[in-house]
## 1
Amino acid sequence: MQESGYLVKSPSIFLKKVAFVRKYEIRNGISVPLQVQSVVDTRLAGKAELTIDFTNFSIDSGKEADLGDAGNH
């Protein structure tokens, strides 16, 4: 599965346009991220590209962690 688009409003005066592509796979009915690609047109440095590959991604077995006891260990 893939979604792509661009930000309608720039998050900074230094950026002209921000575009992205996010790739996912479905595992046991859950959308798991595989890759995020971003391309930014900057006002000062020109074009900048960032790709993040997700590896060794695991899904919790369904047991919720007891965050209330996190400080007691």
Note: Residues 64-73 have pLDDT under 50 and may be disordered.
## 2
Amino acid sequence: MPEIDVLVGTGDFQHLPQILVQLHTPLPQRAYLSNDVYLYQENDARIQTTPGHTAYIKIAEGCNHLCTFCIIPKMRGRLKSRNIESILAEARLLGQGGVREAILVAQDSTEYVLTSGCGRDWRSS
């Protein structure tokens, strides 16, 4: 579609500033979709869009199940989880900023097993 200048996948959003700068120069290739899955870490810059007392913490990205009704594995890839140290560090940073309620989120949070300190993808590798 000639109206689209660039496509940025969820695995490339951290490169958005560079991609936008490149839009002002001729691009040999106009697609930036990749198969990479980007997962937040505790030291990544973030913009908190929730009220100051609450925040979401992403513990995993993607899903290993291939349900016929769901597009998540196709769009987000296989499960990629954060280790417990990274999650706790982010929670501490958010707490220092006034957050008192942290909501743990993932496309498939049941694959994250807290007793092992990591998701199933870490245990199988």
Note: The two ends are 41 Å apart (CA to CA).
